[in-house]
Amino acid sequence: MVRYHEARKGACVITRRSDRRGTCLTISGVVFLLTMAACAGAPEPPPRSHPNILLVSLDTLRADHLGAYGYPRPTSPYLDSLAASGVRFADVMTPSTTTRLAHRAILKGLPAAAGREQGVPLAVRLSAAGYTTAAFVDGGFMRARFGHAKGFDLYVDDLAEAAPAGARPVADRLGGGFEVILPRARQWLDGAGDAPWFLFLHTYDIHCPYQPPGEDARPFTGGRDEPLDVAGLCGKEDLTGMDLTGDQLAWVRDLYDGGIHHTDRLLGEFMGELAARGMLENTIVAVIADHGESLGEDGLFGHNLLRREQMFVPWILAGPGVPVGRVVDGPVHLEDLVPTLMDYAGVPVQEETAGQSLRAVVAGKETLAEDRLRVCETRAARALVRGPWKLIMAGDDGRVLHFGRFDGTLAPEVDEQEKESIRADLLDGWQALVERLDLPATGLDEADIPGAGAVRRELRTLGYVD
Predict the structure, then answer these.
(1) For residues 108 and 119, is the Cβ–Cβ distance under 8 A?
(2) Which of 99, 196, 289, 460 is least crowded, fewest Cβ atoms below 10 Å from its Cβ?
(3) E strand segments, 349-425
(4) Beta carbons within 8 Å of 382's beta carbon, 6+ residues apart
(5) Radius of gyration for the alpha carbons in the chain, expressed in angstroms and rounded
(6) Alpha-carbon torsion, ordered 350, 351, 356, 361, to 10 deg
(7) Which among 270, 301, 231, 364 is positioned nearest to 56, based on CA atoms?
(8) Where are the domains of the chain?
C-alpha cells in the first residue's frame, strides 16, 4: 500500500491514500495545487525569483567514503562533480547518530535534545512563505508517524509495493529505495505548478544490510566469490562481535562502497534528467547524510554511537548564488542547514535555530569560529565537541562519562588544571545552549515505537529494534 500524508494549510486538509487493493487514488499535481490555493488561509505564491530547494538525505553515508572528501575509490562520481560545481563543507557534524533524532533536529535546525513539538520544521517555514512542498522517503524511522511530515503538502513514506520486478531484497523490505523514490519524485515535479517548490528526498540504499546490485558492487568486490554472506546482517546488531577475517572485513566495506555507488548513480541520472529539462536552473541543491557508519573500526559496525566515523557527514551545496569549487574548512553543524537554505531562499528566519546561516561564510565574507561548540547525541549519551576536545555525558542525568582529545591522544603539555578548565568550558557551553533554546537538560524526548506489526519488522531489518 502506498501511503500519502497531507499537511494542514488554513482550514483545508486533502488526503490521498491507496485503497486496500493497492490501486492508487491519484489527483494530478495541478488540480491538487489549485485546490490547496482555494483553501482559506493558503498563502499567495511568492515571485519566481525565489529559488526551488532540493534537499537529499543519503542515510548512513560517512563523509570519508566520497571522492570529494579524499576517498581514493570511485564511489561517487556524481556527488564529486556536484561538489566541484558548488561548495563542499569539509568538517560537518550531525546532531545525532540515529536516523529519527538526526532528521528531526536537522529539519528544525535544533539539537536532538529538543522536544518533538519544539521548533519549526523547514517545510513549515517554506510552506508559510508560499512554497509547494513534498517529501519522498524510504520508510523506517522516516515514516510520518514519527513526526517528520509537518509542513509537507505531500509526504510519501511507503513505496515498497511499487518496487520493480527484480528489485534488491532490501528494497522489498523497506520503502523501495531510489529505484522507486526518484521516478515518483519526477512525477510530482511534472505537476508542481508555478510556485517555487521544496522537495525532500531520503533513501536507505547505503544502509545495512549492505546489498547493492551486482553492477554497482563489482567495481569494488572485483567479482570475487563472497567470503561472507551478509544477507540479513545489519550493523552493530549482527556484525559487531563477529570474528571476521581480513577478507571478510574488506568484503563488508566493498559492499558499503557499492551501495554508495548505486545511490550516486541513480541520483546522478535523476539530476541529469532535471537539468536537461531546465528544472535546476533556479534550484538550490543540498546533499547531506544524517549520520555515518562504523565499518570495523575497533571491531564496531553500524551507528548510534558517538564515534568520529559516525558523527561526521558530508554536506554539498550548489545552485544559483553558490560559488563554484569552494571548500569551507571551519567547524560546521547540520543545525546550520535550515538557516542557510532559508537565506538562499530569501525567506526570513523568524523562529530561532541553534545553527547559523553559512551564506556569508560561503561567500568568503565571514569565517567560522574554530572554538565553536558542537553537540551530537544518541538515545543514551551526548557529545560536546569544541576544537580537538570531546566530552561525553550521560543523557539521563548529565554525568560526565568521558573527556579527552577527539583523536584519543593527550599532549603532555596539557596539565590537569587546564584539562579541568576545558571540561568546565564545554559544560558551561552546553548549559548556555540549554537556557537559550529552552532545551531539556538531560533525557531526550523519545517517541513510542510500535510493539508489533509491519513497522516493527521494518525497524528490525534496519537494526533499530530487537
Answers:
(1) yes
(2) 460
(3) 373-377, 381-386, 389-394, 400-405
(4) 113, 306, 375, 376, 392, 393, 394, 395, 430
(5) 22
(6) -10
(7) 270
(8) 3-371, 380-437
β-pairing, 87-93 vs 326-333, is parallel
**For residue 29, how many other CB atoms are within 10 A of its CB?**
20
Class of 3-371 in CATH: alpha beta
Strands 52-58, 283-288: parallel, antiparallel or unpaired by DSSP? parallel
Rounded CA separation 110/335 (Å): 6
Checking phi first, is residue 321 left (phi over 0); if not, alpha (psi -120 to 50) or beta? left
Residues pairing with 200 in the sheet: 55, 135
Q: CA–CA separation, 238 vs 234, rounded Å? A: 5
| Residues 64, 73: Cα–Cα separation, whole Å | 11
Read off the DSSP letter of residue 319: S
Spatial distance between the Cα atoms of 126 and 55, rounded to a whole number of angstroms: 13
* 10-residue stretch averages of pLDDT, the chain, 466 residues long: 44 32 34 34 52 98 98 98 98 96 96 89 96 94 90 87 51 69 95 93 94 95 92 84 93 97 98 95 97 94 93 97 96 98 94 94 96 94 94 89 82 77 94 90 49 43 49
- The DSSP code for 36 is H
Extract the C-alpha cell encoding 235.
550493523
Scan for cell 532490501, then name that residue.
170
Stated as kind and residue range, the H or E segment containing 271 is helix 246-276
CA separation (Å) from 137 to 200, 232, 439? Answer: 8, 22, 28
In this structure, the number of other CB atoms found within 10 A of the CB of residue 330 comes to 15
How many CB atoms are closer than 10 A to CB 22? 10
Q: What is the pLDDT of residues 442-464, one digit of tens each?
A: 555 444 444 334 444 444 454 54
Identity of the residue numbered 353:
T
Among residues 299, 293, 259, 350, the alpha carbon closest in space to that of 75 is found at: 259
Question: What does pTM read for this prediction?
Answer: 0.84
Cell of 71: 576517498
Cell of 77: 562520481
State the number of CA atoms in the 13 A half-sphere of 17 facing the CB: 5
Chain segment 201-244, per-residue pLDDT in tens: 999 999 998 999 999 999 999 989 999 998 888 877 789 989 99
